[in-house]
Amino acid sequence: MEETRAKLIAAARDAFADKGYAAASMDELCAVAGVTRGALYHNFGDKKGLLMAVVHQMDATMATHAEEAVAHLDDPWGRLLAAGIKYIEMALDPHVRRIVLLDGPAFLGDPSQWPSQNACLLNTRQALESLLDTGRIKPVDPEAAARLLNGAALNAALWIAASDESSVVLDKAVDAFRYLAEGLLAD
Prior knowledge:
Keywords: DNA-binding, Transcription, Transcription regulation. It comes from Parasulfitobacter algicola. It holds the Pfam family TetR_C_41. This is TetR/AcrR family transcriptional regulator. By secondary structure, the chain is an all-alpha fold. It is about 75% helix and about 0% strand. It has nine helices and no strands. It has helices at about 1-20, 25-35, 35-45, 45-70, 75-90, 95-110, 115-135, 140-160, 165-180. Helix 1 packs across helix 4 and helix 4 (about 45-70) runs parallel beside helix 7 (about 115-135). The longest helix is centred in the N-terminal third of the chain and has 24 residues, at about 45-70.
């Protein structure tokens, strides 16, 4: 069963990236994966369930890339800020752009409600709680601050994904994100 799920997710990821969710054919996905349509329905319910599984997998990969990008940093604040910036920068990846940032919200709704985004929110909140405990940031509710920081990063990524000048927008978005986040720092 896991092998079938993995095959369908891999086929869907390629098809969604190349053609977009709407144009990807369930029959073609199943043929590429070497499974029946019944296997798709059994494992994911429908095409939308398959998209959610692909987005979840990609979000997990994005989180791993962000963690790897900041692992060498000793400063907890620097790690938090760099992880947010790395997330924003991933909007330039064509697969992330198409699947996670354009088709995902269009067909799955508000990304802040996706289970994979909730894991990211938890990590951000825990980092902020630690920074709050050490007096590094102003006395602010860590849940509220985490939601606002994650929302800023997500909206910056969405802006980049929708832009025809994504590299120009990236620089603006990263600068603004950095200034907004630094407003949390204690004086």
